[in-house]
Amino acid sequence: MIQFENVTKVYPTQKRPALNNVSIDVQKGEFVFLVGPSGSGKSTFLRLILKEEKPTKGRVHVAGKDLSRLSNWKVPHLRRRIGCVFQDFRLLPNKNVYENVAFALEVIGKPRRFIRKVVPEVVELVGLEGKGDRMPSELSGGEQQRVAIARAFVNRPQILLADEPTGNIDPATSIGIMKVLDRINRTGTTVVMATHDAAIVDSMRKRVIELEDGEVIRDQSRGVYGQAY
Amino acid sequence: MRAQFVLSEIWIGLRRNLTMTIAVITTVAISLALFGAGMLINQQVSAMRGYWDQRISITIYLCTESSPSSHCVENGPATDEDRAAIQADLESMPEVASVEYVDQAQAWEDFQNRFANQQALVEATQEGDIPDNFRVQLVDPSQYEKVQESFRNRAGVDMVSNDKDVLDRFFELFDVLKWAALTFAIVQLAAAALLIGNTIRLSAYSRRRETGIMRLVGASNFYIQLPFLLEGAICGLIGGIIASGFIVAARYVLLDKIQDWFYSGVRLSTGALLSVIGMSIILGVLLCAIASFLTLRRYLRV
Question: What structural domains does chain B harbor?
Answer without folding.
Answer: 2-52+168-300 (no CATH), 54-162 (3.30.70.3040)
